[in-house]
Amino acid sequence: MGFSSWIQERLPISGDSLKELTNEPVPNHLKHWWFCIGGTPAYLFIVQIITGIMLAMYYKAAPETAYESVAYITNEANYGWFIRSMHKWSGTLMIAAMVLHQMRVFFTGAYRKPRELNWIVGMLLLIVTLLTGFTGYSLVFEQLSYWGATVGANISDNVPVIGSFLKNMLLAGDTYNANTLSRFFVLHAAVFPVSIILLLVAHLSMVRVQGVTEYKFKGEENDEKTHFNFFPDHLLTELGIGLFLMVLISSLAVALPAEMGAVANPLATPEVIKPEWFFYVAFRWLKLFTGSTAVITQGLVIAVMMAWPFIDGAVRRRRPNSEFSVWVGVLAVLAIIGLTVWEAAVAH
Ligand code: HEM
Asked: Structural domain boundaries of the chain?
């Protein structure tokens, strides 16, 4: 008896039925790469998990040991600098790819009925991924990690009603203390990644159930063949993208490796406190408005983004051909770029 029939007797899943299950016909427009960009954050997330597990084997989450353990990874552990740099770069690219994917979904109106709920799941994915970035940045226990975490906690303190509770939950106490780093580590390495996995399962199941939105480009209106096979055609595209990303992250890790800043000093506030680039928008906003106003308006922006499919639906019911959403999208992109460049360009 061959090995495959031995397995078949115990797990009666045939290759053909597996093929049928995965072989969703994919609309032709997915041959354009920007329609496939949703697969990119998923791929980078897998890189994050693998490199993250490797880093966790050496990282020691406590104020006395954290910086030293990251320095050990960077300077002494075999290929530690490379793994750490890959982790950092794929995290950065994951956020960039998510934003590009969200923009693609927005500007092609792919969030509209029946995909409103999947847009909301996508928004949750964005928020949890940003929180994962924030907690990761804080783990190194450099000056900027420490003060970034402190500023983040003070911002959550400004949330009306539940502010002090949030700050307390984040810092494991009223102020940064001996337990703060291990809390950040558990959030960064367990709670948030598991949440991302659960959200991704929901996200991709909805994509599978609803199919992707179908589009036709000029010149394709009369094409007889409107779909192609997921397996192997689309899978090969995704593998190609994966290979390109691997080369890109490795090159970035070698050319611009993750470095070590000065060790955290709770008694000396640095002259310039900057978060990671993906928080520049929020940080500039905080400087433009004060305390609670900044936090409440940011909360409102997130609420509007979450509810966008319904707001857009209400507008389109009144004016079916309105280009309202496109203009809002263009303004939002300009605001994001403007605030990011502004924050990057100035020292304070
Ligand atoms: C970890 C992050 C994410 C991953 C891995 C992911 C993955 C995917 C994939 C693979 C698709 C199939 C089509 C494509 O490749 O574009 C898709 C579709 C979709 N995604 Fe995401 N996504 C993520 C985040 C988001 C975010 C932040 C949003 C928006 C707030 C979003 C909203 C949607 C919607 C509405 C669709 C359906 C698009 C259509 O029907 O054409 N996703 N996602």
From this structure: 30-208+230-345
